[in-house]
Sequence to fold (366 residues):
Amino acid sequence: MTRQNRSSASDGGFGAGLTNAAESPERPSGESPLRAPPDAAEASPEAEPVLSTGPLARTGRPGASVSLHEPRQPGRCAPSGDVPAQPLLELDALWIQVAGTVCNLTCTHCFVTCGPQEERHAMMSSAEVARRVAEALGMGVREFYLTGGEPFLNPELEAIVEDTLALAPVTVLTNGTLFTERRVRWLAALTRSARHSLELRVSLDATEPNAHDAFRGIGAWARTMAGLRALEAEGLAPIVTFTRAPGVDEATLAAAAAAALRAEGLSGARLKLLPLFALGRELTRLGEPLAPRSLAGLPAGAFDPERLQCGRSRAVTSRGVYVCPLLVDEAAGRMGDSLAEAARPFPLVHDACVTCWATGMSCAND
Ligand code: SF4
Ligand code: SF4
Fold:
């Protein structure tokens, strides 16, 4: 088993006729927009069919329709007065939302409200990504996370991965439903030949197929499992992330997750657990207002600046630089147009900051 080189770990189709927001004011003039593959929610952007055991329904919950354009609820922010400010200690990692908010799924808990018709953040071209990578390397960034939306919908993803991997370790976050035989072979060959490490992160939301499909759509579990088996057959060991709902014991979930993968004939995956965030579509799924939470009043001595990922990373989308990949739809999360502008402390005003603080989570691989 070839373990994907350790680098130092949202994953994330298109609607017919979607474009990459040609009129976006953030896109440099003269650059052509990326075009979405013609068959968004069902098809691979490649001619080759995706690895699949059946069709993938576009609704997130069996029997329930999920609108692609649910009303957005405002993020829940605390008064910024006395919340701790997270300094940027070093810029080690950059998240690049290469697929924007475009995804072949419409998961009911998606914290960035992605879907086939969601173009709030546009898909990024290889040229745009290369500029961000160069900017980041100039500021000391040592690894890159490619996310979305679903990165494998980006028609330039392979060039983006190869170009970036020539310079630094790369992790691609995916929902695992769009692997094809050719693409898996490409990933395996690249993993073996690259100078830097290439990691794959595949996301699951439950340890049981129906529960997972209730979040992601009927058929999602089967399709992702087919992808994971194909990766393993090529000697790849992806990181599989499982969603941990509030109150679920970490050790219990880890054991159940390992057992679920073994039952699917998978033995090489590594596990990572991630909490749910009350952001984006998850706010709609919860269905009722939550009690306000805030880090305001956290005693200065209790604040550990090493605890949070926003002390060492930033996220870029087609719309600018954000404090982290969680807050790309929150006005408070945007820090500027350049990484240099975003190299400043961030007041931990959002409810999601409370989740990060309480769980100690990091979106990174470790
Ligand atoms: S959570 Fe679901 S809808 Fe959101 S990016 Fe991931 S796969 Fe796509
Ligand atoms: S949501 Fe988490 S990672 Fe993002 S700014 Fe708040 S604490 Fe930092």
